[in-house]
Design a protein that fits this description.
The protein is mainly β. It has one helix at 16-20, and strands at 2-10, 29-40, 45-55. Strand 2 (29-40) and strand 3 form a beta hairpin. The longest helix is centred in the N-terminal third of the chain and has 5 residues, at 16-20. The mean pLDDT is 94.
């Protein structure tokens, strides 16, 4: 896989269709999503998510 982009998405602006949706038809894609931003102790959660988007660039037979 090759990383296409890395974004920090605020939790209150998290659009599942945008984050999980396919960016280009016909290619295998991968999303890695983890906590990001600062930690809000009152809410007990991080204020954002880090979204890494990647696409398949090759396959090796093994």
């Amino acid at each position: 896989f090759t990383v296409d982009d890395v974004r920090v998405v605020p939790r209150d602006h998290f659009d599942a269709h945008e984050v999980y949706g396919q960016r280009r038809a016909g290619r295998a894609e991968l999303r890695l999503i983890t906590c990001g931003g600062s930690f809000d102790r009152t809410a007990g959660a991080y204020t954002a998510n880090v979204v890494v988007s990647a696409y398949l660039t090759g396959v090796t037979k093994g």
